[in-house]
Amino acid sequence: MEMNQTQRLPVPRDIAWAALNDPELLRQCIPGCESIEPDGDNAWQLALTAAVGPVKARFKGRMALQDIQPPESYTIAFDGQGGAAGFGKGVARVSLAPDGDETLLTYAVTAQVGGKIAQIGSRLIDAAARKMADTFFVRFTEVVSGSDAEADTEAANTDNDAGGQADGASTAGEQQEGKRKRSWTAWISKP
């Protein structure tokens, strides 16, 4: 399987680079990701649940960064095992190019799958991979651009204008923080 795409990120390159190297942020943005744990220099163990057609499995794998050239590019080598569902492995070349106040992120992925997943057919595999990538970039763009935080601020301001402080005891900052936590939970669980 091969997949190439360019995404426009509404932030400068240094912010995009920092976000791409933040494991917790990536865990929140990768569909089905349960954990990302350090496993040596520039390497992580991952656990995620993914569905390809009728096959749904929990995959455990490793991701390692290679050819790191901050803040321009790196290569991600990955492999994962999903038990009876099969395996996946490959490489992804990621590069960032400044474009005014924004960044163009370009990636090229080459991957192989085996087991039950490989029997499903390349069209379903490609469609599932594109859907995961699209979901990741929607989430990633929202996080790095701060669009959720801006929406929370507007919602908190609207609530304060309409009803004042909740129970008369909390401050606007506490209300805003509570809203941010709730919106993150809802946002992370979006399909």
From TrEMBL:
<protein>
    <recommendedName>
        <fullName>Carbon monoxide dehydrogenase</fullName>
    </recommendedName>
</protein>
<feature type="region of interest" description="Disordered">
    <location>
        <begin position="148"/>
        <end position="191"/>
    </location>
</feature>
<dbReference type="InterPro" id="IPR010419">
    <property type="entry name" value="CO_DH_gsu"/>
</dbReference>
<dbReference type="InterPro" id="IPR023393">
    <property type="entry name" value="START-like_dom_sf"/>
</dbReference>
<dbReference type="Pfam" id="PF06240">
    <property type="entry name" value="COXG"/>
</dbReference>
